[in-house]
Amino acid sequence: MCGIAGIVGNADPNVIQKMTNIMIHRGPDDGGYWFDRDEDIALGHRRLSIIDLRSEARQPMWDTSGRFVLVYNGEIFNYRNLRNQLISKGYSFRTESDTEVVLNGFSQWGREVVHRLEGQFAFAVWDRRDRTLFAARDPLGVKPFMYARRKDGLLFASEAKALFQADASLSAPAYEYLAYYLSFAWTPHPFSFFNGVAKLSPGHFLEWKNGEINIEQYWDVPIVPEAEQRAIDADELYDLVRQATRSQLVADVPVGLFLSGGLDSTGLLECIRGAEPPVRIFTAAYSEEQREGDVFEEDSVYARMAAEQMRLPISELRINPDVACDLPEVVFHLDEPLADPTVIVNYRLTREAASQTKVLLSGMGADEIFAGYPRHVAVHALEFLPEWMRRSFHQMSKLIPGSLDDRTMGGRARRLKLLAAHTDKGAFHRFMGFSVFFQQDEINRMLLPEIRGMQPVDGYDIHQSLYENGKETTLLQRLLYLDQKLFLPCLNLENSDKTSMANSVEMRVPYLDKALVERVAAIPDRQKINGLTRKSILRKAFNGKIPDAIIRRKKTGFNPPVRSWIRNKLKEYLHDVFSSSSFRQRDLYDLRMVEKLVDDNERGIQDNALKIWALLVLETWHRVFVDQPPAEPRDEELVFCGPPEK
């Protein structure tokens, strides 16, 4: 994994080096750049060496003709197969890297190369003959690609903060997405929370030529009509998951696995058992003090159980974050506000693991393709209830406590109340109501009138337009399509990439292997949700191969003790932040609403922990990106990578 950057138009060698070096965490092993004044182009690259560690694999990389030059971030897991295909067509290779495969693949197949790549990637190729830039992002959005149009050209990079080195004005807040952020905790692609900065959407490519940008979609999450769905055998699914996992072990450095003790990561553990060299296994554990006031199970107990049954060594990483200290640093690495408290834990976890590995496998993605979240089974099951029963459940919502003091419910009470409050509406609105942090009426009361008037983006409209794409399939398939299009890339994968690369660790996600995603999209609902059992066929695939207790275990998620943080170690810090002049002078919120949120949470009247966390993250984001000029990069010397001599 790496960091890439580029300037097309008004290119400057000093600026491209600053853009590149602000992302040194993404590639501390090596760095290079290329600049051509006549072509008005500059490219930069920071390298995290994982495949072919030699300097010959440095980027920007040129093809032998000197026509194409590439900067690339990612891993191509079928690169050896593609390399053999290219050799048969007469190509020679100077390195053993997947980078050169992407480069020669583009030379041979042009834009069609994206259909042949199996992996996670974001790259850009400059064609010197045609004066054209081609850039692409992987199908599911594992790797990021940010860009900004300028009247004289284009800026692009792996991270938005790199763009600010070229144009500080790009860091201005895009408040038109504030209501969306408060609802969903992220900003949807292709937008960003920075004015003038956009994301290249997953499964899309971008072409720049003569000042014009063309963006096209080359892959989409499959929508399979019910009549065309095909059941899958548990053994076939196991083989697919194992093949995907084994293919992602390719590396010239040690590979690790993050084991949460849940079904998904324990399934990966079974798939890598016996691999050579052995995969290093890590799990996270919290102290009792950290967990006080929270209701989720301790994952490390199950992780140790799985490792012991399979007779594999496991390293337990004690996670004891100083949240107030860590948060500004994590927000800096995230670029955009992202109100998922797991960012703190992911950041600490990868920081601890970084001394032992550069690569970690993760079970991320299984919930989005196999229907593993509570909202999937809840909305799906409600469709089978008569309307009168759903309406009765809606009336009961007023009786469901949201009290933090109920240790048997905690956050579950919040989710149950959300679901019940929307049972009188259609399936789409039930799903959305179950998925948000702040409800729309809360946002309307929270934001000042002038800020409400800046909200042209209706989050529900964005989601509903995608939901409507699935009219020919089942309700569950439509919900999974929504999650794979937005929730997965905009929240989970963004979190995963930014927090791991902050510590120079590459995160790989075998469940998001394209062939596996496409096959699972075609299996019927009954194999995903059976009664109230989620991920039914995945449980069958690993039955007898991993501990029964994990097969039967209910999903808890990788949940940090955010309620404990809010009520205990962050209590004074929160009061300082929300009473500060900087917060009160943002002119964004009705401050009485903020005070009520905090007060109700402290008194145990309502579980507002996630809402408070969202506001805290946003205020921290303002302090990092708005209240001060762009961060200065380290002054690291980059190697100039010029074209081959003719």
Summed up:
This protein is of the alpha/beta class and 646 residues long. 41% of the residues lie in helices and 14% in strands.
Describe the SSE topology.
Elements: E1 2-8, H1 13-21, E2 30-36, E3 41-47, E4 61-62, E5 68-76, H2 79-88, H3 98-109, E6 119-127, E7 132-137, E8 146-150, E9 153-157, H4 160-164, H5 178-184, E10 198-199, E11 204-209, E12 212-217, H6 234-247, E13 255-258, H7 263-272, E14 280-285, H8 288-291, H9 299-309, E15 315-318, H10 323-334, H11 342-353, E16 359-361, H12 366-370, H13 374-382, H14 387-396, H15 411-421, H16 427-435, H17 440-446, H18 449-452, H19 459-467, H20 475-501, E17 506-508, H21 514-521, H22 536-542, H23 548-552, H24 562-567, H25 571-579, H26 581-584, H27 591-602, H28 609-626, E18 639-640
Parallel strand pairs: 2-18, 13-14, 13-16, 14-15, 16-17
Antiparallel strand pairs: 1-3, 1-9, 2-3, 4-5, 5-6, 6-7, 7-11, 8-9, 8-10, 11-12
Helix pairs in contact: 2-3, 6-7, 6-22, 10-28, 11-20, 13-16, 15-16
